[in-house]
Design goal:
eight-stranded mixed β-sheet; 18 helices; membrane; Nucleotide-diphossugar_trans; 57% helix; alpha/beta; Spore Coat Polysaccharide Biosynthesis Protein SpsA, Chain A; cell membrane; glycosyltransferase
């Protein structure tokens, strides 16, 4: 279930009793955070020490694998994939250092822009989203804001119209007669929009004042730009543990991975929280996009990745703007987190299959090597999911102590990169959440990928539920 957090964006007074309660809550949260981080570090260091003491057992295990034809083949495959992944990481590091966001163009050069905000059971947060858009440092006569309620069952429609009352004609609200899904809400916005550029923003997201102008400037600088991905950070990361973990993960996913992808003109997914599309590119693929099916069933997930794929297929570049920041709400409980990851996993499987049909064709005039390399990396990860999953189960059953110790050491080594990356850019203290996130993902969410592959044909948003007040 998605947890909705109301943030004090528009607070006009302070309740002293509530302030005292909040301080007490923050104090308890700080203590629990320290306990989690301390326990995580002790666990990882214990795993590393255990590997040292179990060296003879590891030697015997590796010898038995080498002496087995099947084990030797699997070892060779593992080493080959490891070398590929290391080479791919080093290449991404090189691309990252080459990347620079495009600076905002002048007001005169900024294109006309239609901002579409689809909402379902979002409550008051959509009100804050619309206000953040209206407060943008963007010429008012060049921006059209469309808020579309997708048949919500809560008070979302009330808060949309509350924002409209305060912002006047700057916001136009629409209500779907019934809940049809985010894709249909966006489709209505695309057909109603008049801007040269479409910007889509999730209704649980807040943008900064310069976000819009930074997001759409690449379309003016590069005429072959078809879409731009925004830089997503976590909004509700002040107290809850899961959002703190996800905030560090998002920085790695966006500021590192998408910076590298942007250098290749092939960002693989423009996020639903914040993305921009050239209107002409959207209309070229809109009929195919709205009628998209998978295994004969209408697709109601992955609308952002699908749109990105279709624009890449047109030969257009898809770029990333690090200076276009959006803050978005993320799940604060395990149930909401795994449902979100299942949805993303299924979409990833579907769209990689779609991408495989055009990525090795002559789909663009510029170099296609980068796009093909990015696809190959993702596709290898998918096809190796089950072999490694089965090996992991075998390892756990036959050598549980070796599995736990080697896995913890692996987490300590591999997660040090995102830790150092976040520490360099933001905060050394907060960077340690990368270790905790890796432990959670490895031991608590390892089943997501194989489950998503096995159920890729299933539909459903999974997290679109009314939050208990």
């Amino acid at each position: 279930m998605k947890t909705q957090t109301i943030h004090p964006t528009n607070a006009f007074f302070v309740d002293t009793d509530n302030a005292s309660t909040q301080k007490e809550s923050i104090s308890k949260s700080t203590i629990s955070n320290r306990i989690v981080l301390t326990a995580t570090m002790l666990l990882l260091l214990s795993g590393a020490a255990l590997v040292y003491f179990l060296q003879p057992d590891f030697y015997n295990f590796n010898q038995s694998r080498i002496n087995s034809p099947l084990g030797l083949a699997f070892l060779g495959l593992t080493i080959s994939l490891l070398l590929f992944k290391i080479s791919f990481l080093l290449y991404n590091v090189y691309l990252y250092f080459q990347y620079k966001p495009i600076e905002s163009v002048s007001d005169e050069l900024l294109p006309t822009c239609t901002v579409i905000v689809p909402a379902y059971n979002e409550g008051k947060l959509v009100y804050q989203t619309l206000h953040s858009i209206a407060n943008s440092d963007f010429p008012a006569h060049k921006i059209q804001i469309l808020a579309i309620d997708d048949g919500s069952k809560d008070d979302t429609w009330y808060w949309m119209n509350k924002a409209k009352e305060e912002l006047g004609d700057r916001v136009v609200t629409f209500q779907q007669p019934e809940n049809k899904g985010k894709r249909h809400a966006l489709y209505r916005g695309f057909n109603l929009g008049t801007g040269e550029i479409f910007v889509t923003i999730d209704s649980d997201s807040i943008i900064k004042t310069d976000t819009l102008r930074n997001l759409v400037s690449p379309f003016i600088v590069d005429q072959n730009c078809g879409a731009v991905a925004g830089n997503v950070r976590v909004l509700n990361n002040k107290s809850a543990i899961l959002p703190k973990m996800l905030n560090v993960s998002f920085v790695m996913s966006f500021e590192f991975v998408r910076s590298a992808e942007s250098q290749l003109g092939s960002v693989l997914c423009t996020p639903g929280a914040l993305a921009a599309y050239k209107a002409s590119a959207v209309f070229k693929c809109l009929p195919e996009w709205i009628d998209q099916k998978f295994m004969g069933v209408a697709s109601d997930i992955g609308e952002d990745r699908a749109m990105t794929n279709m624009i890449l297929k047109q030969g257009k570049k898809v770029l990333f703007q690090r200076n276009a920041i959006v803050l978005t709400d993320v799940p604060e409980r395990y149930k909401g987190l795994y449902k979100m990851f299942i949805r993303w996993g299924r979409s990833n499987v579907r769209e990689n299959l779609v991408m495989s049909k055009f990525v090795f064709t002559n789909f663009r005039k510029e170099s296609k090597v980068g796009a093909r390399l990015l696809f190959t990396n993702q596709f290898l990860t998918i096809i190796m999911t089950y072999p490694f999953f089965l090996f992991m189960l075998y390892f756990i059953v036959m050598h549980p102590l070796l599995f736990i110790s080697s896995t913890l050491l692996g987490i300590l080594i591999v997660s040090s990169f995102p830790v150092l990356f976040y520490a360099k850019k933001y905060s050394a203290k907060e960077s340690l959440w990368a270790y905790a996130y890796s432990v959670l993902y490895t031991f608590g969410l390892f089943w997501i990928a194989p489950y998503a592959i096995a159920t890729a044909g299933r539909s459903g948003w999974l997290t679109r539920e009314i939050v208990a007040k």
